[in-house]
Every structure is written in C-alpha cells, then in structure tokens.
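The protein record reproduced below.
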Amino acid sequence: MTCKDMGNPPDSRHPAAARTPPCRAAARYDSGWNAIYPKDRATHRIAVLAVPPVTNFDLSIPELLFPAVQIDGEPGYQVVVCTADTGVVPSYSGVPVVIDTGLEALTSADTVIVAGTGARTDGDPRILRALRDAARNRQRIASICTGAFVLAQAGLLDGRPATTYWLYSDEMRHRFPAVRLQPDVLFVDDGDILTSAGVAAGLDLCLHLIRRDYGAAVANTVGRLGVIAPTRPGGQAQFLETPLPPESGTSLADTRAWALARLDEPLTLRELAAHAHMSTRTLTRRFRAETGASPLQWLLHQRVDRARELLEVTDLPMDDVARRSGLGTAESLRQHMIRRNGVPPSTYRATFTHRNTSQ
C-alpha cells in the first residue's frame, strides 16, 4: 500500500487538519489515526529546523523525545535536524551547533518543527519560502518558543490562534496583529499548525504530538523515560505566580501523588485539603499556583488520562474503565472522552488496542 492508498478520517474538531490530503501516513493527528495503519505506514518523518541563532535547548527537545517512541519494536519517528546554511550554526547561548543537512529535508517531512531562535526579525527568505511550501503541501508545522516568529513572518499564523514565549508576547502582538495571540497558554493546537510557549512548554508540545499520533500510553511511557511531569494541558497558564512557601516546608507534590494513587475513589476537595493539612481555600490557592489548575480540574484531567491508558492497554468493559479511572459510569466516560478527545471510548480503543506500547 502506498500513502496515496490510505483513507483520511474526517476531523470535525480541527477543520484545518481536515484539509490534509490522504497522501501522508500521519494525516490524522489528534486521535492517533496513524495507528490504523501499523503495518503499512512509513516511519513518521520529522524535520527540525534550526534558524540561527538557534536556541540549543529547543533544538534538543525533538531529538530526545521522538526517537524514544518504539511501536512493535520499530521506531515511530525519524528525526533530522536541518538549516539553511549547513556547517557551524550560531546559537543563542553562544555554543555553536554543527548541522550537515539543508532545507531539502523539509520537502520529505511529515512534520516540520521550527526551534526557538534569537532571529525574530528579517527572516531568511529561503526559510520563509520553504515553510510556505510545506504549508501548501499540507505538512504539519509546529514551532517551539520564538520559532513562532518565523512562522508569523512566513504568514502562516495569519488569522490563526497561536502562542509564543510570554516574554515576547507584546512584540508578537505589535508586529503581527493578524495573529490571534494566546499569550497565557503552554501550546496551541490548530490542527496542521501548532505553536508552543518557551522552554519547558516545548516538552509539552512534543509529548502532545506523540499523544496525537500514537496515543496516551505511548506518550506517557516517553514522559517517564524523560522524567517529565504528568501531562499538562495546552490551555494551562505558561506564566505561573510563585507559590507561597507551604507551612509544612513541602509543596503539594505529596498530595498529588496521594490522589493519583486513588483516582478510582470519589475524592473531594475537603479530603484533598485534609491530606495536605490545610483549609480548602488555601489548598485551592496553592494548587493553582503550582499547577495552573484548580484541584478538581487537575483531578479530572488525570482521570481522563487514566481512562485513555486503560482503553489502550486493557480489554476492560467500559463500566470498569469508568470505575477504575474515577469517572463513575460508562456514560460519564463517554462524555468526557468526546469532550477531551473528540471521539467516544469505543472509537478510541479501536484505534489503539492493537499497539504494543513496550519500549
């Protein structure tokens, strides 16, 4: 089977993604439709674009996370780093990087990721032209941190929601008023164009891409290998106030770990506060300061993630999945899965149950 033989499932949640033609193995991203073609699909190709002076940390994130994905003993991704002028590439930190692949790598990529850069103005015409070509070819394009400025200069963010590092949000808003800037979130998924905030938000974006392509269990395994915190939703605030010093001398990490071990129990705000030895008001304030979400919002997010894993790696009936994840009933599970993932539990399970998620 060739890529052109593959069907492209519709995507009602991401109209932009629905425009992606069926000639790419990774055409359907948000619910892992790559999984439908485990034997026939080619390894998903990712080109990481370094725009000098490149941010070294941003450049390293895709190289570290995507190669960790193994599907049935085979690599889920092939990652190549490229730039306009090969050789020694200046970096934002002053430590140069040697890159030997040029912009031709973008033409064969399924996903193009633009790393953060210190060049927020006067974009290289060759790079902007290559990105526009990728957009016309309906390849998936993402940016980390200030890489969003490169996408904006190419005109790819006009009329779209996007984010960037909060420190440069005013500059982005002033220079690119056509961009529907969301300065307070970790990342924005607009189907075939994704943007993230700075620094650690690039980790969240890459894990999100893995989750879209291969499901929650695979993404969580990669997260554990990378010693990365549990999933942070894209809408979480990127700039959090400094938590007040806890009276006990510790953060709420112990209470969160305690709750994660009891997701199947009907935990209440009062029970969480009792475990943390503080009032519900203080708990809510400190919880939001540390995680960007209220205790019950965080708890629901973790329960839906647990349900997704159970759907992927077990054959439990829907009622049991709902009970073990703390979502109560099969109908409640169905509502939360549709709201969060755009598909009912049965469709989600059918997409992923055949996958071997062992690394």
Observations:
- The first strand starts at residue 44 and ends at 50.
- Confidence is low (pLDDT under 50) at residues 1-40, 239-249, 354-359.
- The chain has 14 helices and twelve strands.
